Fold this sequence. Notes:
By secondary structure, this protein is mainly alpha-helical. Helix content is about 50%, strand content about 0%. It has helices at about 1-25, 65-75, 85-95, 105-115, 120-125, 145-155, 165-180, 185-205, 215-225, 235-245, 255-260, 280-295; strands at about 270, 280. Helix 6 (about 145-155) runs parallel beside helix 8 and helix 8 runs parallel beside helix 10 (about 235-245). Mean pLDDT is about 85; it is low at about 1-60.
Amino acid sequence: MKKPLVVACCVIVICSLLTVSLLLKPPSAPSDGEPQTSAQPTPQTTAQTTPQPTPISTVQPIDPALQQAVKNAITYLKQTQDPTGLLMLNVIYRQFGIAEFNDSLQRYDQLLASNPDPLLRISRRIADYNTSAVQPEDFNSVTDQLDRLTVPALYSDRISLPDDYLSQLTDAMDIGFFYAEHSINSGSYLLTHALLATIWLQNNHCSLQLPEDFTSTLYQENAALIGDGSQVDDIELEAAAFLYQAGQGNLVNPVFVQNVIAAQFTDGGWSATRDTPSNTNWHPSVLALMILLHVEYPAASYPPMIAPAPS
């Protein structure tokens, strides 16, 4: 009896040991495709490693010909001694930060000191909001048809517009377009200056109520001044430059911009007319540079042409 009892006890002990061993064995990893049922450890916070989308670049591709044309034009224009040219360089300096033109107003004042012309005192407002150079009697000297369009707009936040100013503006657009249709460039400047006047009215936040569709028609008619030939002249450059200033650069054909680059002379300037291509001049040159800078540095908006009130 004792021997069978001993054997039975041994069997029980061995079975108990096997049972404990199985209970203490760690669970095996699930096979591929087998759902994981064991408890997961609490995840630890880690740095974000999810790949971020690459932003779409909004930088315009570099055009070496455009950059070189701009560089050459700056070299050419920084030597100008024309007062109105210096005021336009001041506009370019404020809008694009061209360092070579940072002294344009000081140079203008030097010329004004040696030639105190009433129109020069009036025009200084373009570069200096608080200009004190102008005298009330200076406005009596404004007799030129183009000046009679632009000077009231230049001072529209200080001086009341003439009673017939709206009719002057609409007539200038209509007459200028008539001249443009008949390829009379001298009269077409009424059209470009009507555009310049509206830009300055907007710069001064003038509340003049223009006829419906006036500005859109004005933009389209100025765009029509720009030809599609390989040669460019002053009236085309002026129309394109003012369209860019008005935020309507989309109306300027990119082919025209390439023609502007191709029309630049080796001295860095442009000619005013197709008849005298060798005579470069500050006026078409500053307009061409203004166009090219808008193309090189596109933006939703730019500082106004007229210097704003100091902040």
